[in-house]
């Protein structure tokens, strides 16, 4: 998903930058301290940049290790079917069994992965799934013992990656026994909450056959009980366990409920009308099910939403707007690190994440200073008005042409691009891509939100992010790779997936903007606010920053007035932006390292795509660059 960028344009810091240039001549005296040298209190140096020399439009990577052009594995697409041995077939069956163990049989979880679960001996039941699962760590221990009996050396390359994926998931799952989850509850967050999740699950429930329609109506019917159970768990967390609860958290959740209750058209009926054609039903059947859905919405779902609103508002009296990071609580630092690790897909410590992100952010900031100094005319052309195409299909066709030389080719791929109806437009999303079910790979859908798209360059790069060469292309590529199984559709690695799309989005600006310096500036502008938010998340929950620390940090970049906004966001939503930042820099550095080892850029991208979404340590293992990447990130 392409998130709405924080509205902290680099233009807000340009005056600050220009005012600094006169005192930046001796950069060595004012070099920014790296994150590793920062104290718990906050920043020790001021951001500066050298303005000597003539910068190139793009920064060359600083590789580590020795170039070795003769050792470049995985440089051709890993497409095609293989004939498995009996032992390899047994491993595939183990993967399917593990899938069944982790997704259960409720239709919400099952349907997100499989359209035909009966082919996997899963009896799909109408239901929202368990609201609590305390048995998961024990289950992971049992599965670890089973997978340890597998002869790793007898597996195919694709199976070896899946083995390492699953073992990573198992190790992460076993960690839960040692964590105190009573310290944090995200049910009523300000950027994604329980209500938004429910509405997304229902509005994007794929209606591809009649059974899907029946299950959707059944979910609506069961919503009152699900809401009651979920609220009871949330109330225990916020009231009995004293998890952070602020008035903004409640008001944001109530606002989402009001969006549904006050809509002139019922959003879920609008979604039904948008999706039902794919089910292939007769007009009479469609009308019959629409009336049944409308009846359940009026008699079950809407009253349940009203009651949920009353319940949520009853928590106002328990609000404590005293803000704090998780590391201020006993066991909180460990919990935050775990949340960050699973969100990004890495075993990096939170301290290393902070240092790594700060180093990259400061490099980017210094590059902005150089652009402001040497190429003010290029920056003055922002926003770029030379590109005006806004037809999504034409843009995606042009993106396929632009990317031909730099990315491996994939088979012709079907997709749908649709503009979200007004009633279904999320506040913080520009667009999103729906990952297809494993056994129905042809349904690839991009939803766009015109409320958050400004046209021209914005639409082009959003479709690059969600389409080609972004999410749609990456998932289509991986679906053709040897070793891909249903389990891969159940395991989400946002750091890889959003890291890939942020990486290619930076290149997309060069496709349509002739001025390379302006294209480079656009890339920095898109990343700037995301990085600031992610640094504040790490600063607050890993370093113990309070609002004065955040203000000091932002003040070094001329942005102290944004401290309250970013601090509040970071406290309430601890790991929202990390995949878009740490994930992006890890992806960019991975490709840079491969190129330093002798790969061409296209070969490096192919190698990353062949392995597919996974945590970064698994990716580096199968690319043979574990030690080199360890040097980069530590």
One letter per element, helices H and strands E, the order comes to EHHHHHHHHHHHHHHEEEHHHHHHHHHHH
Order of strands, main sheet, comes to 1-3-4-2
- Summarize model confidence as the mean pLDDT: 89
Number of distinct helices? 25
Strand percentage lies at under 5%
What's the gyration radius in Å? Answer: 25 Å
Uncertain stretches of 5 or more adjacent residues: 3-55, 58-70
Basic shape: globular
The level of helicity is 55-70%
State the total count of DSSP E strands: 4
Query: Major sheet: size, sense and barrel closure?
Result: 4 strands, mixed
Distance between the termini: 29 Å
Structural class: mainly alpha
Walk me through this protein's architecture.
There is one protein chain. This protein is mainly alpha-helical and 634 residues long. It has 25 helices and four strands. It has helices at residues 11-21, 86-103, 107-113, 136-147, 157-175, 194-203, 210-240, 247-261, 267-275, 283-313, 332-344, 350-374, 376-380, 392-402, 457-466, 471-479, 487-490, 494-512, 516-543, 547-555, 563-572, 578-596, 601-611, 616-623, 626-633; strands spanning 2-3, 416-419, 429-434, 445-448. The protein has a four-stranded mixed beta sheet with strand order 1-3-4-2. Helix 1 packs across helix 12, helix 19 packs across helix 22 (578-596) and helix 20 (547-555) crosses helix 21 (563-572). Residues 3-55 and 58-70 have low confidence and may be disordered.
């Amino acid at each position: 998903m392409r998130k709405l960028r924080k509205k902290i344009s680099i233009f807000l810091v340009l005056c600050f930058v220009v005012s600094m240039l006169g005192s930046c001549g001796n950069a060595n005296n004012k070099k920014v301290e790296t994150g590793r040298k920062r104290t718990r209190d906050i920043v020790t140096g001021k951001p500066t940049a050298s303005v000597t020399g003539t910068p190139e439009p793009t920064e060359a990577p600083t590789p580590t290790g020795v170039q070795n052009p003769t050792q470049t594995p995985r440089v051709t697409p890993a497409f095609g079917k293989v004939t498995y041995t009996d032992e390899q077939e047994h491993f595939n069956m183990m993967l399917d069994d593990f899938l069944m163990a982790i997704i259960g049989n409720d239709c919400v979880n099952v349907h997100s992965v499989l359209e035909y679960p009966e082919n996997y001996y899963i009896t799909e039941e109408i239901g929202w799934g368990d609201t609590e699962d305390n048995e998961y760590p024990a289950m992971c221990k049992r599965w670890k013992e089973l997978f340890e009996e597998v002869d790793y050396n007898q597996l195919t390359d694709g199976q070896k990656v899946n083995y390492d994926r699953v073992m990573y998931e198992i190790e992460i799952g076993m960690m839960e026994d040692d964590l105190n989850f009573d310290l944090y509850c995200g049910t009523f967050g300000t950027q994604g909450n329980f209500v938004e999740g429910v509405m997304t699950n229902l509005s994007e429930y794929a209606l591809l056959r009649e059974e899907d329609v029946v299950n959707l109506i059944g979910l609506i019917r069961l919503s009152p009980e699900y809401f009651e159970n979920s609220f009871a768990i949330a109330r225990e967390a916020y009231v009995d366990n004293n998890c952070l609860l602020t008035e903004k958290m409640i008001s944001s959740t109530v606002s989402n409920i009001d969006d549904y209750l006050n809509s002139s058209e019922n959003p879920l009926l609008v979604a039904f009308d948008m999706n039902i054609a794919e089910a292939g039903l007769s007009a009479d059947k469609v009308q019959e099910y629409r009336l049944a859905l409308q009846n359940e919405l009026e008699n079950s779902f809407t009253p349940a939403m009203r009651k949920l609103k009353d319940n949520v508002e009853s928590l106002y009296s328990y609000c404590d707007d005293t803000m704090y990071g998780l590391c201020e609580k006993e066991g909180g630092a460990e919990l935050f690190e775990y949340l960050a690790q699973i969100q990004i897909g890495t075993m990096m410590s939170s301290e290393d994440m902070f240092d790594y992100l700060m180093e990259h952010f400061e490099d980017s900031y210094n590059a902005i200073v150089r652009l402001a100094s040497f190429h003010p005319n290029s920056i003055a052309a922002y926003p770029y008005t030379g590109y005006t195409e806004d037809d999504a299909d034409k843009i995606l066709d042009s993106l396929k042409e632009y990317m031909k030389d730099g990315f491996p080719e994939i088979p012709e791929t079907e997709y749908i691009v649709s503009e979200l109806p007004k009633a279904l437009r999320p506040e913080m999303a520009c667009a999103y891509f729906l990952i297809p079910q494993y056994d129905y790979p042809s349904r690839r859908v991009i939803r766009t939100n015109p409320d958050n798209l400004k046209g021209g360059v914005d639409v082009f790069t959003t479709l690059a992010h969600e389409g080609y060469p972004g999410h749609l292309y990456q998932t289509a590529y991986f679906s053709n790779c040897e070793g891909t199984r249903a389990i891969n559709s159940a395991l989400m690695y946002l750091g890889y997936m959003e890291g890939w799309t942020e990486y290619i989005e930076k290149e997309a600006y060069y496709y349509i903007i002739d001025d390379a310096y302006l294209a480079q500036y656009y890339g920095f502008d898109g990343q700037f606010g995301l990085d600031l938010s992610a640094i504040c998340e790490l600063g607050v929950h890993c370093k113990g920053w309070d609002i004065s620390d955040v203000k000091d940090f932002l003040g070094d970049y001329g942005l102290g007035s944004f401290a309250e906004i970013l601090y509040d966001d970071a406290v309430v939503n601890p790991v929202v932006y990390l995949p878009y930042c740490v994930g992006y820099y890890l992806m960019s550095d991975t490709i840079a390292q491969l190129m330093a080892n002798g790969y061409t850029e296209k070969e490096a991208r192919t190698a990353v795509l062949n392995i597919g979404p996974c945590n970064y340590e698994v990716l580096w293992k199968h690319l043979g660059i574990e030690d080199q990447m360890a040097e980069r990130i530590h």
